[in-house]
Amino acid sequence: MQTPAPCGGLKKSPSQPNSPRKTPLPGSGIAPACFVPVKAQIMSTTFSDDVRQKLNFIFGRRSIRVYRPGPIPEEWVRILLEAAMAAPSAAAKDPWRFVVIRRPSTLHAVAEALPHGGFLREAVLGIVVCGDLEAAHDRQLSYLLQDCAAAAENLLLAAHILGLGACWLGIHPREDRIRRISALLELPRTVLPVAAVAVGWPGEDKPPRTRFEAAYVHFEKW
Amino acid sequence: MQTPAPCGGLKKSPSQPNSPRKTPLPGSGIAPACFVPVKAQIMSTTFSDDVRQKLNFIFGRRSIRVYRPGPIPEEWVRILLEAAMAAPSAAAKDPWRFVVIRRPSTLHAVAEALPHGGFLREAVLGIVVCGDLEAAHDRQLSYLLQDCAAAAENLLLAAHILGLGACWLGIHPREDRIRRISALLELPRTVLPVAAVAVGWPGEDKPPRTRFEAAYVHFEKW
After folding, report:
1. Is the ipTM here above 0.90?
2. Which domains does chain A have, with CATH numbers?
3. Mutate to test the interface with A, among B52, B81, B102, B161 (most CBs of A within 10 A)
4. pTM for the full model?
5. Interface of B with A in 107-136 (CB under 8 A)
6. Helix, strand or coil, per DSSP, at residue B100
7. How confident is residue A22, by pLDDT bands cut at 50, 70 and 90?
């Protein structure tokens, strides 16, 4: 660590000073190199470089909405889906279902159905994460949503590990979005679209960060 | 790869042959070394060792319900919470709240309130992931659940990276569990307990795996 440098995207909190530093990460070509000092401090005294790097890729996963053109290998799509389906699910019911979209006309149509989803037009790939209510534990919407969200987070993290950029676009619970996406993708009646994930080669660079807030943490009881 | 060895915990699917192999992972002391051959094949031809190892920690996160005794440093708890709060949330509202439980009497009481939660008694740490409905985007329960689930998944992955074992215990939408946990932790009226995460030193070893099912994947439309 030599020169403090500005580093955007950090939510300020009492525990996060204002001037994080640029720090090169040895051996990692993937995660952008920017640490919040307090975390770097903790990690440097407590964790090995290996663990520090792995943790950093959780903090380095950011919402990437600008993409460079370029193909994504077919087998990488498989890896993203394997990662998504490595998430835990309630009673291991795995109610998640996925619609992979590569055709530009379909990507445009999905973008059209989602406010703030314009950047999906530039993505190489869209993956709509759905849940089948008939498959969910006890047919509960709550479990369906939790299971699909855990799968979507795994998918985003895997994309980041592969050096791709991705962004979560909300669908559920907006009735109009659910209706339009369901019609567009011809989803069965019991299958609910929960979120769309846009994936492409990152066209913007965002530093790792946490939005940790000490006020959100309680001990033993509220 | 020399000798094929049995490797439990794999859900069989047409794309996953029955006899995965034990493969030592260079430089990683954390994730158990067991690959599904098809994935190892894909990865060995397409990804660097670095990326392969990082991906493997997503597949290596398993539900660990047996714990060895031993303290978890205070700053590691902070890292787990930083990882949880590095998840995306709808409109960045961050409705997640956390109750960290270390006192054995409280861990016992939480275990008592959760069916199948007995192993929480042996955990070093319990983190109850809650959501504040007043803080959620548009005060929607759906967003609250999705945001809390993404945070919980990050928490589980960070625990795994640190070499800890963890397991997700469902609370929402079970009315009786919500009522008992809310009373026990004295949660405010608008704060819903979503899940409890048990954390400790792993007392069981589970191989990496995905529950990937080709039938759950559709292309362009259903």
Report:
1. no
2. 17-60 (no CATH), 67-202 (3.40.109.10)
3. B161
4. 0.82
5. none
6. strand
7. very low
